[in-house]
# Entry
Amino acid sequence: MSYKKADTPNIVSEPMVAYVTAGSSNPFYNLLGSNKISLSNDLDIIKFAREGFPKSTLLALAKKISLNLQELAYILHISERTLQRYDDNEIIKTEYAEKAVELARLYTRGQEVFGNMDKFKLWMKAPSLIFNGEAPVSVLDTSAGFDMVFRELGRIEHGIFA
# Structure
């Protein structure tokens, strides 16, 4: 059996879009990114969380998801006064950065489920029977609370309300 060399050139004609990574169009990256920090993939998020990030980024996230300083401090397990003492460009501790990443993940997921960030933010602040009459945002001080809210979002997405 002989193999003849084909006269056709070795050109791959596949769509370019298949090889483009998700960039700033991803709402998750938009929640955490800022003018000073550019995030375009999950590895950037990991690096970002490990190194920590400036207080200004944390406050920008809080503003985007409508959390006041008191609520943010409660979720991060830090006193409000200690949080205020950080300079805007000072790098915050990695455990706070990790919580901020979780907040961004949660709010991105909520936006997907509710179809609108404003609707999700209202739901997060409204008391719910699922959370014993507390607002979902009030249970975010623990990892179990984050899990409960994620599970409830899954139920809502699939139409299971009770």
User: Anything to note?
Assistant: Residues 102 and 146 are 8 Å apart (CA to CA). Helices lie at 27-32, 42-51, 55-64, 69-76, 80-85, 94-114, 117-125, 143-157. Residues 94-114 form the longest helix (21 residues). The mean pLDDT is 84.
